[in-house]
Amino acid sequence: MSPDTQAPKVVFEGKYQRMVVRGTWEYSERTHAGGLAAIIIAVTPEDTVLFVEQFRIPLQARTIEMPAGLVGDIDAGESIEVSAVRELEEETGWTADHAEVLMIGPTSSGASSEKIAFVRATGLRKVGEGGGDASEDITVHEIPRARAAAWLVEKMGQGYELDAKLWAGLWMIEHHLDGTPRG
């Protein structure tokens, strides 16, 4: 019997993830509604890109990421767009008038069933300080769009871990999904 036809066996289940064995494969699944996360691509009216910095326990390092969060972890019926705006506000103190799902795809298809939705937030306005919820210690960075890629390279050189999805997000700021420039 091939691994894809064998029944999955849950070997551990926590609040947000479970570990599954299917044949010779071991992988994790998100336990919340849909197993989906959203990464928010947000450029302020001042033409700055919003990034967040936080310590990530699995890496034992500080990371630079775009704002992101689980879809449906608070309300299972919450849409991707509503989740994205909620996470944007919670993490950065900025809210958005509009959120548009650009694409959805796997985050690490060999290790997890989780998928990520890239969401463009527009009509941004500052409504608070951000910094995350009580369990998070998030630093918000507002970096001029024209310097964003260079700033990320500098942070990498300083020893920060950079989420690889940052580069896709920066590309999506400048391009439509068909590759044509925005603007």
Automatic annotation (TrEMBL):
**Nudix hydrolase domain: from which residue to which, for each copy?**
33-174
- Check the record and name the Gene3D superfamilies matching this protein: Nucleoside Triphosphate Pyrophosphohydrolase
Tell me its cofactors: Mg(2+)
Recorded GO MF terms: hydrolase activity
* Key words of the record: Hydrolase
Q: Does the keyword Hydrolase apply?
A: yes
Respond yes or no to whether keyword Hydrolase is given for this record: yes
Give TM regions.
none
Q: Which reaction does it catalyse?
A: GDP-alpha-D-mannose + H2O = alpha-D-mannose 1-phosphate + GMP + 2 H(+)
Which Pfam family, any one, appears in the UniProt record? NUDIX
Q: Which family does it belong to?
A: Belongs to the Nudix hydrolase family. NudK subfamily.
Could you tell me what this protein is called?
GDP-mannose pyrophosphatase
Organism this protein belongs to: Stenotrophomonas bentonitica
Source taxonomy: Bacteria, Pseudomonadati, Pseudomonadota, Gammaproteobacteria, Lysobacterales
